[in-house]
Structure formats: structure tokens, C-alpha cells
Amino acid sequence: MTTRRDFLSKGALTAAGIGIARSEAYADEQRATQNLTPDRVKQLKPPAKPVIVTRVTGDQTVQEAYRMLLDGQDTLDAVHHVCLGRENDPRDHSVGLGGLPNEDGIVELDSCCMHGPSRRAGSVAGVRNIRNVCLVARKVFEHTSHVMLAGPGAENFAADLGFPRENLLTEDARKMWMLWKEGHSQMDWWGPGMADPAWKDPYADHPTPQPTMDLHGLASTGPGLSPGLSPGAIPRHPTPEWRQLIAMRTRKLTEMAADLGIEPEKRLAAVEQVLWPTTGTVHVSAVNTKGEMSGATTTSGLAWKLAGRIGDSPILGAGSFTDQDVGSAGATGTGEENIKVAGAHTIVELMRQGYSPKDAGMETLRRIVRNYNGEMNKVRYLDMEYYIVRKDGAYAGCSLWSTGATGHPREFVVHDGELRVEKCSALLEGSMTEWPPL
């Protein structure tokens, strides 16, 4: 099933004439920078052209941000231009206005940013009623000696600086929340986490899709796999029972959507958000021809989360990290797992040691999997994507899984003079199993 966002995003990119494959010349350049010594990293030269990496946005903000860099504007201004496009779009249910709310029906936003040239950073978490939290995060380091503000304090800080208070719960998002409350709320974020010894696989007695899982490199890079799990591809396929379950749930939720007054043309999208809630988040990293870098992440967090839940997006070193000497990285996905490996910081530190952007991202993904000893009955509930750029313009997009819930390849956007979509380098073949489960 193709999501509305997939359709709009790919349509917008096609209309803009974006190529899918990168040039052979640049591919050769990327290969030539795979193995570096730490001393060589210190000597990296800025790229000949600016580079931006982010997710597929479905709008013109990446092109506009690139023009800003060409015009000599600050890298953080350009990065935030992309974030603002998503925060201001009520159709994007992963961030800002229209973001999906917590279990109480309240939208809570998180964001952080790092400005490479000045080595400053700011962060806000659990912010209500303020739309453009990416800019509020920047104001933290511009107007205070703090790095992070949270909750009502962050909201009041933003209001004092002139950010308008507004209701971020759009009517479409409110109806999606009502549909979740009516038909799915027993499947929430309560209960022990997977790291708890008492945790039990909720799908153990359920028919479920089990994608092919290819454990690239896991057998030789650290703690072993779970008993009985050998390296290589493990074929698993969606069962007819699971497909029947999805069809049944879709019919039931569609009927409930009609009872809640959701317009016919919006019912399928609402059902989709209940079954597979948006978890997009936005991270953007950029480097200009001076070698100056910035990175920012912004999100409304997990749909239907417990009130006050904070993921990785506002945490410097997890959701985003920029080091002017090395590179910039950020993440979208299962925030709790990314916090535990300090994902963005780990990637940058690995690049400092000489890892290529791709290898740094893949090694960090392996650490997430190793936290569960390679046990696929747990790893299948996790998700992660990394967006990485090095000081010399080398870049990568890395994902835990090769495809999304809709079956489309995991992709990211890069602009280095040519705007295009590329496939992420994936650690595991297949797609995650959505959590909370059906």
C-alpha cells in the first residue's frame, strides 16, 4: 500500500526532474574516500559544492535551502528552512502543525540543532502550543547560557520571544486520534520494554508478517546471534492469515471512521495512521564550500505516546550531532534505541577515526542490534534511519531495514548541485513489524 506521503513526495520529486542515480564520477569519489586514517580526516578539504542530506520532503524546501547555501547564507539557516517547511505543513503528521498527538490528544514537539562554525547548540523538548520548535531550539543558545529547555518552561520562553501560541491539533489529526481511541487504544506504549527480562513477544501466538532478514556483518562484528539464528538470509513471509487480519481491521476501522464523521476521501489515510502511525521526524545536515556544517532535527514524536515521552530528536548526540572538524549526522526512527547508542555522536566519532559515512552508519546500526543480541523477535520491532555528511561532502543514508511498511525501498534525499533520491544502505533486508502490534 502506497501512503499519501509516498505519492505526494515522489510526485513532487518527479515533477522537479530529479534523477535517481548519482553520477559515476561522484560514485568514484565516494569510493576513493572509504578508508581514511584519523590524520587524513583532519586534513579533509571542503567540498567543491555544498551538500544537503535529509528525508524525502515532497516540497521545494531542499532546492531553496541549497540556493541559500550558494548565496552564502548560514548553514543553520538553510537547514532550518527545510525543517520549517515540514513544521508548517498540516498534512505532515510527523512534526509541527498537524503532528499526531500523545495518548491524551495533545501535540508535543521536540527539536535540537547544532551550529558547526560557532560550535553552539540548542534543544527543546515536550513543547506544546508552539509550532516552529526548530527555531525555538536555536533561540536557546542565542538568548541563554543553557542548552536545553523542556515542557512549560520552553513554551513560556518561546512565547516571551514572540512565538505565537496556537492549537497544533488539526481537525484531521484530531479525528485520527479519535479513531485510534475508539478502535486501537488497547495497543499502547504501556508495559515493560523489550529489554525487560519479563517481556514477551505479543506476536508469539499471532499470525504476523515476518520479512526476510539479512544480517549483514553481524556474525563477525561483536556479540553473537541468538541461539539457533545463523548468519545469512532467514526467509519469512506474510501469511494469508495476516493479510486477512489486516483486511478485517481495515474494514472495521473504515466503518468507525465513517461513524466519527471522517470524510470519505480521508478515511483510508486515517485508518493507515492508526495501523501504521507516521514516525517520519525530520533531520537535515548540510555542509558548504567553506566546510561549515550544521544539523537539526524536529519531530512530534511517537503517535499516541505517553504524555511527556521524550525520544532522541531533542537529545544532542542522539537525534543530531555536528562537529565542525568532522561531520554531521542525525536520525529518525525508534528514538529510545538511538538514545542508548548515542547514534549521531557515535557516527561522527567513527568518521573521526576514519570510517566512511556509510560504514559509520552501518556500525552504529549494528550496535542497536547487538543490544538485543541479534534476537530477531525483538529487533523486528525496531526502526532507524541515519542521514550523514562528512566535512568533505561525502555522505550516506543508512537504514536498519531495506524497505518501509508499504514495501517501498528506504530512501533519502541528497543535493550536491543535483537534487536526487537515493536508496539507503540497509543492514537488514525486509521491513520492520509495526509497534504497537495489531
From TrEMBL:
Pfam families reported in the protein's UniProt record: Asparaginase_2
Keyword Hydrolase: yes
Keywords annotated in UniProt: Hydrolase
Binding site for substrate: R309, I310, G311, D312, T332, G333, T334, G335
The keyword Hydrolase is annotated on this UniProt entry: yes
GO terms, molecular function: N4-(beta-N-acetylglucosaminyl)-L-asparaginase activity
PROSITE patterns documented for this protein: TAT
Residue(s) at site: Cleavage: G280, T281
Active-site residues, record numbering mapped to chain: T281
GO cellular component: cytoplasm
The organism's place on the tree of life at top rank: Bacteria
InterPro entries tied to this protein: Ntn_hydrolases_N, Peptidase_T2, TAT_signal
E.C. number: 3.5.1.26
The protein's name: N4-(Beta-N-acetylglucosaminyl)-L-asparaginase
